[in-house]
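hey
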C-alpha cells in the first residue's frame, strides 16, 4: 500500500513571492484607506450647512454615533458632519421628519483606526518569513531565522557526488604529485605517524586564474573519498562585526564532525590580507575573521578522528598575512603554473573527447600555437571551434575551425564591416610582408612563420603569426634582437615602397621598445654595466631624461 503524503502548508514560489504578496496586501489596505479618506472629505459638510439642509427638508435620514453624524439627502447624496450636544437638534429632526438611527459607541470597532497597526504587523511577518525561508533553503534547517547569520555558507559535497579525480586534471603533473601526499594521509594517516611525521595541515594553491586550482582541490577530495567543504573568502565577510568569525567556527565544527574531510577556501586573499592594511588602518570584521581562521588552523589535531585538511587558492600570495603562511598553518605551497606544450596537448585532448573532430586535426600543432594559454583558455578554444563548425553546419570540427577560434581568442572577432580602400589594403599587405620577410631571413633565432593575413581583427588591421616549435624558458640576446628586427620590418617596407610613414606601426614600436628596455634595464645586455635598473622596484631608479 502506498503511503499517503501529508499535506503540508506551503507557499509556492518561495520567500520572494510571499514578500511580494504581503506588500500587495498592504498596498490594497493603503488604497482602501486612501479612498475612504477621500470619500469622507468629499462628503463632509459643516454644522451650519447641516442645519440649513435639515430646515430646508432636504435630509432624508441620519445615523448618529456620539457627535459623528452620517446621513443621506433626499436626492440620494451622502454626507458626514459633527454636531454638538444640543437637545434642540433632536426636536429639529422630529419637526422635519428626518429618520434618526442612534448607534452606541460602546463596543464599536473602527477598522480604519487600526489600519496602520495591521500594516506594521503584516510587514514584520513577511520579512520574518523571508529570512526564515532563505536560511532554510541555504541549509540552515527549518528552524533557521534572521538570528542564525553566524552559520557557515560553505557547500558540502559528499564523496558520492564528487566525480573529479586526478585523471580529470590534464597536465599539472608536479602539482598533482605534491597533492598525492594529502590524499595518502586522508586515506591512511598511520602510514606517516609510525615514524613520527606530521602531515601538512594546510595547502595553498598559487597560480593565475584559469589554471585549475579549484579543480585540483576537488580532485583531491575525489581521490581521498572524503567530504569536501567549499566556500569563497568573501562569504565570511558581512557588515556586522563578528559574523565572519562565527562562520569560521561553524565551518570547522562541521568539518570536524565529518572528519576526515577537506575545507577549500577559494580566493582566500579576500579574508587573509595583511592586517592593518585597510582604509584607516584596517577592517575590523575582516581582521576578526582572519584571527579566528588563524586560531582554528592552529587548533587542528592530527589524530585520525579529527583529520581535517584546509586547502586554499589565490593568485595574490603577496598580499596574504605572514601569520597565515607560517609553518603550522599553510605548510605547503603548491604552484599551479600555465601549462607547458605537453600539458596543453593533454588538456586539448581532454576537452575534445566529447566533440566530433576531423581525424586530420593535429592537436599537438594546435598546442604549439597557444603558448601562454591557461587551462580555461584552452577549454574555451575547443568550445569556440565547435561553435564555429556548428554555425557553418559542418559534420565535424576541422583545423580551420581551430585556427579561427585561436585568432578570435587572441586577437578578437574578424571585422567584416570595415570599409578599406585598395590603397589601404595595399599598405597593410606590404606592412605585414615586411614582418614576414624579416622572420624568414632570421630562421635560426626566431620562431617559424605560420600565418600572414590582412583581415582586420580587434584593433589589428593585419597579423603575421609565428608558430613556436617548442617551449622556450630562456631567451638569448640574439633572439631578442631578432624580435626587434621583426617588429620594425613593417615600417622599413613602408618607407622603401611608399616613401612615407604611417601610424600602423605604433604597436610594433611599443613591442620593440619594451624588448630594448628589458635588454638594458632588466637583463644587463648593454655596455652600461651588469645591474638591474627599475622604475618600480626601487633597485636602481633611472630617469626618462635623454642625455645629449
Amino acid at each position: 500500500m502506498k503511503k499517503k503524503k501529508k499535506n503540508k502548508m506551503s507557499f509556492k514560489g518561495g520567500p520572494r513571492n510571499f514578500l511580494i504578496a504581503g506588500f500587495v496586501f498592504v498596498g490594497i489596505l493603503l488604497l482602501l484607506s486612501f479612498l475612504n479618506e477621500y470619500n469622507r472629505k468629499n462628503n463632509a459638510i459643516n454644522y451650519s450647512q447641516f442645519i440649513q439642509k435639515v430646515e430646508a427638508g432636504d435630509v432624508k435620514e441620519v445615523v448618529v454615533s456620539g457627535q459623528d453624524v452620517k446621513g443621506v439627502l433626499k436626492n440620494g447624496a451622502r454626507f458626514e458632519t459633527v454636531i454638538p450636544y444640543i437637545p434642540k437638534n433632536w426636536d429639529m429632526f422630529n419637526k422635519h421628519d428626518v429618520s434618526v438611527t442612534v448607534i452606541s459607541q460602546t463596543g464599536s470597532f473602527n477598522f480604519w483606526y487600526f489600519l496602520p497597526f495591521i500594516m506594521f504587523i503584516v510587514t514584520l511577518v513577511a520579512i520574518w518569513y523571508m529570512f526564515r525561508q532563505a536560511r532554510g533553503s541555504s541549509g540552515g534547517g527549518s528552524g533557521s531565522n534572521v538570528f542564525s547569520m553566524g552559520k557557515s555558507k560553505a557547500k558540502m559535497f559528499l564523496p558520492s557526488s564528487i566525480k573529479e579525480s586526478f585523471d580529470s586534471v590534464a597536465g599539472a603533473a608536479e602539482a598533482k604529485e605534491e597533492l598525492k601526499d594529502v590524499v595518502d594521509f586522508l586515506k591512511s594517516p598511520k602510514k606517516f605517524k609510525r615514524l613520527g611525521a606530521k602531515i601538512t595541515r594546510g595547502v595553498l594553491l598559487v597560480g593565475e586564474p584559469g589554471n585549475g586550482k579549484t579543480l585540483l582541490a576537488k580532485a583531491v577530495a575525489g581521490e581521498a573519498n572524503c567530504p569536501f567543504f567549499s566556500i569563497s573568502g568573501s562569504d565570511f565577510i558581512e557588515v556586522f562585526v563578528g559574523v565572519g568569525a562565527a562562520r569560521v567556527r561553524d565551518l570547522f565544527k562541521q568539518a570536524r564532525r565529518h572528519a576526515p574531510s577537506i575545507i577549500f577556501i577559494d580566493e582566500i586573499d579576500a579574508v587573509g590580507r595583511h592586517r592593518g592594511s585597510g582604509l584607516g588602518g584596517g577592517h575590523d570584521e575582516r581582521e576578526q575573521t582572519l584571527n579566528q581562521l588563524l586560531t582554528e588552523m592552529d587548533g587542528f589535531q592530527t589524530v585520525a578522528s579529527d583529520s581535517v585538511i584546509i586547502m586554499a587558492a589565490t593568485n595574490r600570495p603577496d598580499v596574504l598575512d605572514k601569520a597565515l603562511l607560517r609553518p603550522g598553518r599553510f605548510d605547503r605551497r603548491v604552484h599551479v603554473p600555465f601549462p607547458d606544450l605537453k600539458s596543453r596537448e593533454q588538456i586539448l585532448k581532454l576537452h575534445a573527447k566529447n566533440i566530433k573532430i576531423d581525424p586530420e586535426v593535429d592537436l599537438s600543432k594546435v598546442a604549439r600555437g597557444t603558448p601562454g594559454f591557461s587551462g580555461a583558455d584552452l577549454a574555451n578554444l575547443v568550445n569556440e571551434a565547435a561553435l564555429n563548425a556548428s554555425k557553418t553546419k559542418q559534420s565535424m570540427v576541422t583545423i580551420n575551425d581551430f585556427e579561427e577560434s585561436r585568432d578570435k581568442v587572441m586577437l578578437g572577432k574578424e571585422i567584416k564591416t570595415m570599409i578599406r580602400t585598395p590603397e589601404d589594403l595595399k599598405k597593410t599587405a606590404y606592412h605585414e610582408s615586411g614582418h614576414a620577410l624579416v622572420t624568414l631571413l632570421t630562421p635560426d633565432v626566431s620562431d617559424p612563420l605560420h600565418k600572414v593575413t590582412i583581415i582586420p581583427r580587434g584593433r589589428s588591421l593585419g597579423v603575421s603569426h609565428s608558430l613556436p616549435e617548442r617551449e622556450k624558458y630562456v631567451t638569448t640576446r640574439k633572439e631578442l634582437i631578432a624580435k626587434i628586427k621583426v617588429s620594425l620590418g613593417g615600417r622599413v617596407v613602408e618607407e622603401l615602397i611608399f616613401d612615407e610613414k604611417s601610424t600602423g606601426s605604433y604597436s610594433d614600436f611599443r613591442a620593440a621598445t619594451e624588448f630594448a628596455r628589458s635588454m638594458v634595464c632588466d637583463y644587463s645586455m648593454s655596455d652600461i654595466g651588469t645591474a638591474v635598473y627599475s622604475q618600480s622596484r626601487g633597485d636602481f631608479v633611472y630617469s626618462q631624461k635623454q642625455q645629449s
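The longest strand covers residues 59-65. Confidence is low (pLDDT under 50) at residues 1-14, 137-147, 301-305.
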